[in-house]
Amino acid sequence: MNRPMPHIPTTRTLLSTTLLAAALLAGGCASDGDDGAAGPTGPTGPGGQDGDGSIHLRSVGTYAGGGSSNEIVAYDPISKRMFVVNATDGLLEIVSLASATAPVKVGQVDITAAPINGGGINSVAVHGGLVAIAIEAPDKTASGTVAFLSASGTGAILAQAVVGALPDMLTFTPDGTKVLVANEGEPEDYAVIDPEGSVSIIAMPATVTAGTSFASRVTQVGFAGFNASAAALRTAGVRIYGGLDANDDGDTTDPGDTPSTVAQDLEPEYIAVSADSGTAFVTLQENNAIAEIDIATGTVVAIRPLGYKSHDLIGNEIDPSDRDVNGTSGGGGVARLRTVPVWGMYQPDAIAAFTVAGSTYLVTGNEGDARADWAGFSEESRLGGATLDAANPVSLRGLTGNADLGRLNITTASGDTDGDGDLDRCYAYGARSFSIWSESGSLVFDSGNDFERITANRLGTGYNNDGGGFDSRSDNKGPEPEGVTTGTIEGRTYAFIGLERTGGVMVYDVTVPDAAEFVQYVRTSGDVSPEGLAFIPAASSPNGKALLLVAHEISGTTVIYEIDPTPTGSN
Question: Which domains does the chain have, with CATH numbers?
């Protein structure tokens, strides 16, 4: 049984695009006007949500880098340097940000060379003048490492710590006493091995110098203690569905196949830490859940399912097709948001924590992700190619054509509620939104349809487009919100959310968590696929003003946005 979908709180003013679409988003109907008299004018849709204008971002500088990929970025206020992960070339690029308008590369670390000899670089974090980088092994199913270097130094590696398989993200606790590492534990091939996901807790010494040993300082926090609770977790709504495919035929339910344990199936993606450095919140993206870890004891306190988002509710509309006009590629698509009988899996990637009145809140970028990248297993299907039960609401409404829902990517691993081999419900990847959650996992706020509605009105041919053409991503997670961070400016807290496919950053005032307000959407031409974001408060900034750093995966650029607390520009 699935956990009921948490509703968008009623304190938020819901914005209907069912009506708004006719005025602002519709188009492409092939009619010459000769088929009958015009109908009466429909009612006027509700007004769009205006930004509150409390701050304004503007681009003041760009670091182009030496490679094709900038993924994660971190900043050291002591040396006024930023550290950029160039995953394509296996480099950590060291960049002077003494001038926010003219960043200059001053060094780099090649993680494929000695003494690291790594297989890939995935993340970077900085605290107190010390840089930590997450490095996967050449065989990504083997144990990875975290390497440390001085932020003000030449890039020489001081020490390394052994962590779990595929360290995908790492962060220092706010007090700097520990480094936490999300070890995703992805398989290389479902017919060979599916390593266990885990979180490494590295206890930091007072100082790290050349040769510092971390042999006794790493605690591996795994999920094997939940292996016997697989059925209960599934019933609660945690997606546990992988397995080893013995005959490598893409079906993990044949005789001889081995279902994944809970520990193997959970894949930690990203970590946020409470302000008191006591609790870690870990996104389990494919599993549509968040794990809570007590840092002091190194124990998993809870695994909380996030539920599902009904796209059949006013305010939660999506654009589910890239061929809205007539179902063909020749007809193409339009920006057409509508309510549809499909459920979105939140499946957040990045997560950030902030505090209001002593309570911790969590911000997630609800990207979505399918297991479809490795041999032996794939859960992804076009809705039109999946086998639906006759009572599935999509079937009942006759929405399986390409102009409706037939092109939408859904999972075949969830939705067969009666176990008869067909889908009784359709679940799509991601929620095309950002959410705010309480620390106990209750949904406090969700941005609903804001991202697609706002970008449809502002971008023209850039809508749901990552280079494949106008509307080309509508059938697959839409704008794809991924990276998130938060920052406080003049007593108010803001969330910054990067849209990986559409591009640009959404800014919300989250000072009142259950009534978050849209502030600004900013996007710079030529900067494609924002991945990692880092907020720099004014007190730590090289120019005395708050900054936002945004690393772009496809264009290989890192943009420096200056944040003006007394805006002069349009939202």
Answer: 308-345+376-428 (no CATH), 349-369+430-571 (2.130.10.130)
